[in-house]
Amino acid sequence: MRDRWLPAVFVIAILAVVPWPLHAQQNTGDIYGQIVDETGGAMPGVTVTLTGSLIGTQTQTSGINGDFHFIRLSPGEYDVQCELDGFTTVRREQLKVVTAGAVNLQITMKPAPVDEIITVIAEQPILDTKKTGVGQNITNDVLANIPTARDPWVVLSMVSGIVVDRVNIAGAEGGQQSEFTSRGDVGGDNAMWNMDGVTITDMAAVGSSPTYYDFDAFEEIQVTTGGNDPSQATGGMGINFVSKRGGDIPKGSARFIVTSKGLQGDNTKDLQSNANPGGSDKLDGFIWNPGFKRPILIKSRDYGVEVGGPFKKETAWYWGAVGVQDIQSQAVTGAADNTQLENISFKANAQAGEDNTLTYMYYRGDKIKRGRNAGATRPPETTWNQSGPTNIHKIEVSRVISPNFYVNGKIGIVKGGFSLTPQGGLDTSAWRDINRVWHGSQQYLSTDRPQMQISADNNYFKTGFGGNHEFKFGFSYRKVETESVSLWPGTGASTRVSSAYTWARVTRPGNAHMENRYLGVYVGDTFTRNWLTLNLGVRFDRQNGSLLEATTSGSPILPDLIPAMTVAAKDAPFSWSDISPRLGLTYDVSGDGKTLVRGSFAKYADQMSGGDLAFLSPIPFASGLDYYWTDSNGDHIAQRDELDLSYGPIGTYYFDPDNPTSTETTTNVDPDLTAAKRTEFIVGAEREIMPNFAVGGNFVWRRADNQKWLVGTDYRNPNATYTYEDYELAGYVEGTLPDGTPYKMPYYKLRAARADLDGAGVYTLWTNRPDYYQQYTGVELFATKRLSDRWMLNASFNYQRDREYLKSNKGIANPSPGSGTDAIDGRDVAFRSGSSGKNGYWIATPKWQFNLNGLYQLPLGVTASANLISRQGYPVVYTEDVDGVDPGESTKTVQAVKIYDKKLPDMIELDLRISKAVSLAEKGNLMLDLDVFNILNRNSPLHVQETLAIPDTNQVQDLMYPRTVRFGVRYTF
Q1: Partners of 704 in the beta sheet?
Q2: Which three-class secondary structure state does DSSP give residue 676?
Q3: Looking at 355-402, which runs of residues are DSSP E strands?
Q4: What span, in angstroms and rounded, lies between the C-alpha atoms of 250 and 255?
Q5: Which of 368, 364, 488 is nearest to 438 (CA)?
Q6: Which long-range contacts (CB under 8 A, 24 or more apart) does 657-660 make?
């Protein structure tokens, strides 16, 4: 069952601890320099000394071209001193290093008849000539001084090209992950989450974070959205949390941040509704339920401490933090949603001489939530209570083999998992009414998700072949296990009411148990000559996995028809091997580092998810059969004698009624399944228009091919999937939309030749989608002003489209709009959020997005700052339910409009802060913050009931939280 490559990987990993380095989700930065004399001639043999409070002293001698380099430096400030007999000593101070950034120095040394030191606190270039990718570093200046909801998903929404599924006012939504899109990666499935250089991505909910975070634990947050170097496996968003660390100078901080219901406005009193037809605020034609309430942040408290310092100066250091967020909110229905996030962080760093460093990092994040997913369709008894800590460990070793050879190795362990327990309990059955509102209880989930990573990364510098080379090469091996048990409570049957009939889904518990394995090897060369920088690299990835043994019990009310089962372990019939080229170019047009043009090209392979393996199991979810149901006693609960067993099942859900004891899955997996591929091209330019201030723009083109889809088949011909030609017109959904627009959309059914075959409607195939691709194009303009001269600014504007295209009808199976295997050439790509996201919300790439944040330091220690996030409203996708027309289909949901035919109002959130700094002399500093979120008190609908022909059609189900004031006190020393 184990990968045959595994022993070799561990041998390599053991060898790597001494002379080899790590997989690079980089949590450090670099300083590069060249030393010349007054004539511009290179100066070899100069002694270059690096000092800073976070390190011991490091010394190098400049090379044949006068070059030097100090790499893998923790974010912070450093000083560089250059000395050579007969020349003036030059000292450059307060050089600020950021994550994955490079400080490039050009130092001129003059002859000196006597000892002389020239000290310069110089403006370092804001442009990085070695960078070719697209992204943003969220520095501590932004994290500490810009008003935000203090969670990483809000930080993502501030990054150009990324949009999230929610609007988080003052942290009201801070206890739940957001789903997001990033430059064509709809849903964020290829996102890579990293902490201090260790990949921690949750592969069961692929592309998501395994934990929640203490905002004050981070020195920086680095986000990449394109042009990823070979060290990152995918083309998705990459986020790296760089935690603080101790130094020679003891430092620390404490905080208490609070808001409450009494500090909020009201953005619902003038809403037009059926009970208030004269309301002045008409919500763009959507309906407000007068029985709903304004969403309320009842209470939010964020408090914690962090402190760091030396065990022994210039040798060993410590840092630790404890943080708590207590968030109590209330949905529009009045249902409570209470969250407590408890976080503990610790880091120890040691330096043995100048050549060896050792780091240990520990992070523990726990989320205790009461009322997850509270909303218009989820009253309190159907919400979840969530708990389960995630523990993260990292050990990192770095060694300087020679001034031109650096090595680094990491081992990372993540102990993740959580449970979702419905507040209605496990003895109460769940049921859904005609308005799609759940009652009674809800599904239960318990999941364990441990993972382990070993990685290595090397840097080797070489002069020759016409310029300077920095070779980067390394590998990573990662193993991720998932075991998720799910069940419907009570009788194991959930009942549903539609406009035509009532039915029940009768299930047995699910048990998805699998192991994913990932091996990556890469090599790259950063070549510089004069004003040209070339980044040339290639990456090889091998992804595979296994299904592990799992057992489940039978249906509580139909154990004879839906029996217990044990599934044996087996290897996946497929493995993915992919080669990914990465090319980048930066050219210094002006020759002074102030005008740069950039370009990059890359091909990426998507990452394998736990879901790719779960399809191998017949019990990946709570699975079973749908039956007509008559509620004889009016209790909304399905009893055996209320099911129309004589008619037989009207629908199936990952279960074959003709083979109830079969251990084979109803979802066949194509043994030739391969990873989806993405091709990317970026071109852009940047200009430093004044010291510390740059503007620029990029054009980004991406294409996603070889996508995966779940397409119907029958078990006698598991590879003869349904095609466009297998369907015929079944009818139309037609009528009038709430705004008076008529609609008429066709839907289709299987032709009798396929519908009458055994297994029709039961069996599917997970395979690659032919003759179909998605294409993203975007233009971004941006401006960046580093904090200096009392002000700072970050601004970006995106105009973008992400659409699907067909080469032929082979890219379509069931053409019914919304079937999941339909497509319309040129249609916008969208997905309906679920899992940890805002359940049921349609998320798409907005055509436009504008973000701005900045600050200005006023006299008397007062700072004013602002944060503006705005975008086009998300689509409203109206649907209509009709009776199922295909085998195994109880209900068919048909989209009545195309994506973005209708949309929600544009989203605009403006937040302001006024801060006052109070000096406590030698005892430190006190900062008093006053934040005002949603200062415009906007009440934009964020989600509406999109199902047509039911009483609640077009009713607002989620609304922006109103204007909220938050107070904060921060102490630093």
Answers
A1: 678, 774
A2: coil
A3: 356-372, 384-387, 390-402
A4: 17
A5: 488
A6: 657/561, 657/625, 657/762, 658/758, 658/759, 658/762, 660/561, 660/562, 660/563
pLDDT at 10 over 50: no
| Cα–Cα separations (whole angstroms), residue 86 to 7, 35, 89, 110, 418 | 56, 15, 9, 9, 66
Tens digit of each residue's pLDDT (9 = 90 or more) over 827-837: 999 998 876 66
Question: Distance from CA of residue 339 to its chain's centroid?
Answer: 20
DSSP lists the bridge partners of residue 668 as: 765
- 3-state secondary structure string, 517-583? EEEEEEEEEEEEECCEEEEEEEEEEEEEEEECCEEECCCCCCCCCCCCEEECCEECCCCEEEEEEEE
Candidates 302, 638, 316; CA nearest to 494 is: 638
How many angstroms separate the CA atoms of 501 and 724, rounded?
Answer: 30
Bridge partners of residue 621, in order along the sequence: none
**Which phi and psi (to 5°) does residue 782 adopt?**
-145, 160
Show Cβ contacts of residue 113 under 8 Å, excluding neighbours closer than 6 positions: none
CA distance 589 to 103: 19
Q: What is the DSSP string of 98-166?
A: -TT-EEEEEEE--B-SS--EEEE-PPPPSS-TT--SEEEEE-HHHHHHS---SSHHHHHHTSTTEEES-
In angstroms, the CA 790 to CA 241 distance is 27
Which of 208, 218, 148 is CA-nearest to residue 177? 208
CB distance 232 to 23 below 8 Å: no
107 touches 67 (CB < 8 A): no
Place of tokens 């060290």: 231
DSSP state of 389: -
* Residue keyed to tokens 């839906």: 562
* pTM of the entire predicted model: 0.91
Q: Which of 208, 199, 180 is nearest to 240 (CA)?
A: 199
Query: Quick one: pLDDT at residue 274?
Result: 65
- Sheet order of strands, 667-669 included: 667-669, 764-768, 708-712
Tens digit of each residue's pLDDT (9 = 90 or more) over 215-261: 999 999 999 999 998 999 999 999 999 999 999 999 999 999 999 99
Total length of the chain? 973
Degrees (nearest 5) of the Cα angle 653, 486, 832?
65
Name the DSSP letter for residue 236. Answer: S
Residues facing 482 on adjacent strands: 514
305 with 253: CB under 8 angstroms? Answer: yes
Q: Which amino acid is at 539?
A: R
Q: 283 — phi, psi (to 5°)?
A: 55, 35
Q: What is the pLDDT of residues 117-174, one digit of tens each?
A: 777 776 678 888 888 788 899 988 899 999 999 999 999 999 999 999 999 999 999 8
Measured CA to CA, the distance from residue 819 to residue 891 in angstroms comes to: 11
Q: Does the structure show a pLDDT above 50 at 73?
A: yes
Q: 10 Å Cβ neighbour count for 706?
A: 17
Decide which of 863 and 141 is more confident: 863
CA atoms of 70 and 80, how far apart (whole Å) = 10
C-alpha to C-alpha distance for 783 and 852, rounded to whole angstroms: 9
137-972 placed in CATH 1.20.210.10: no
